[in-house]
Design goal:
By secondary structure, the chain is an alpha/beta fold. It folds into two domains: 2-252 and 449-467, Glycogen Phosphorylase B (Rossmann fold), CATH 3.40.50.2000; 270-445, 3-Layer(aba) Sandwich (Rossmann fold). It has helices at 23-38, 72-76, 80-94, 96-108, 126-134, 147-153, 156-161, 196-211, 226-236, 270-276, 296-309, 335-338, 351-356, 369-378, 391-401, 414-425, 428-448, 453-467; strands at 13-18, 42-47, 62-65, 115-122, 139-143, 216-218, 243-245, 283-287, 313-316, 343-346, 360-365, 382-384, 405-407. The chain has a seven-stranded parallel sheet, sandwiched between helices. A six-stranded parallel sheet has the order 10-9-8-11-12-13, with helices on both faces. Strand 8 (283-287), helix 11 (296-309) and strand 9 form a beta-alpha-beta unit. It is globular. The two termini are 14 Å apart. The structure holds uridine-5'-diphosphate. Uridine-5'-diphosphate is lined by residues 23-24, 27, 259, 263, 267, 287, 289-292, 316, 348-349, 351-352, 368-371, 374.
Amino acid sequence: MAGAGGGADGRRARVALFPLPFQGHISPMLQLAGALRARGLAVTVLHTAFNAPDPARHPGLAFVAVPDAIPEAAAAATNGIAKILALNAAMEASGRVRAALASLMAAAEGEGEPWLACLVIDSTLTAAQKAAAGLGLPTLVLHTGSAACFRLFRSYDMLHHKGYLPSTESNLHMPIKELPPLQVRDLFDPSKLPNKEIGQKILNLATETTTNSSGAILSTFEALEPHELGMIRDELAPKGVPPFAVGPLHKLATAASRGAETSLLDQDRSCVAWLDARAPGSVLYVSFGSVARVTQDEFVEVAWGLAGSGRPFLWVVRRGLVLGVEGKQELPDGFGAAVEGRGKVVEWAPQQEVLAHPAVGGFWTHSGWNSTVESVYEGVPMLSRPLFGDQLATGRYVADTWRLGVLLEGVLERGEIEKAIRKLMEEDEGAAMRERAKGLKEKVRTCLESSGSSQQAVDKLVDHILSL
Ligand code: UDP
């Protein structure tokens, strides 16, 4: 490795990074930024005003706001897909990303300044990649999902060609033999969206940016997805795009990190004291991440399912979780009294700290990739309730490949929820998942040791950046 983030001439290198402005994408990008900085590189994070990170929480990183990169109308769009497309369109039209990069490149000409080696973009930010290409600046692409989803999103031509898609009522349970253990019902099916073309466009973004990049950075690790990573290496090698599996990103730079610095919302730490008073392994932690929404009916079933399960639980009911309700979410009448002393509800939790807490014995998750990896890292088995996009495939992997969780499918209904919670928290099947989760927890830690696969991948990544 070239020493301390310097190029062949000994001059220090700078890397610019541009995350997609959503929690599940900002966190891994900032974590990667921290890891690159720890290897001696200078790091600048470009960001939108919408969901801007707080520079005060990242003293070692430089931040540059790219004005108007996401117009108000796009920020207000409820649908994440519409936001991503609007953001790319606005970036291309305004030329502001190009201007921000040009000014970073000009600053790098100054005496003693680091040279700008590359731009690392979220895999959806095609417009930022085009801006960099126009200035002759290479890009690397950060994929914030699993290696399995990386492969899945590149397989849509095959899925259509072989007739898996568009899905029909009769083929939903059909296994996809080219992508085991996935079934047709685990696919994000663009034809089910009101606007099919938009769905297909969004799927193509990551493939397009990867093809046009100088490298793919994956938020996963060898111990979890060895087969998928091997296939990705084979697929990308002829294209000259090296992959780097550097996860779990939230522990890459420092195992002591508790995640508060990358959270966009204030985390309510009162739940930690509440957990302190609970028996080891007794609590079910429940959170559906930062963007997923449920209907009012589903919300009520979740509440009464938790109440009926008889288990202690910590439930994140974030603002905006329930469709049609923008402010603070009211809990169903009588719910507070029914779970008195057994349940705690917060608007946003210190999730990594919660999952690391000895009182937590299970995680009911929407199978967002960051949540899944955080749970795997702490050896906590899951109750998976994927809601859309790549969550569906991740839920299937959790249940069928890693066998670390119970998959909750079909209509959400309180009786089914109670049964699933009992299976995970009380029955032999759940105990076996807990044992497997403990085993994998050990393996994850070896990936993060100094000679482990993820640290070696970061070394290679830094060497690669310096060679660009
Ligand atoms: N998170 C948190 N507090 C909460 C719920 C979630 O800090 O109460 C964090 C969690 O640790 C994870 C991220 O929000 O890093 C959610 O990312 P994920 O990919 O799981 O789901 P998304 O929000 O993108 O759907």
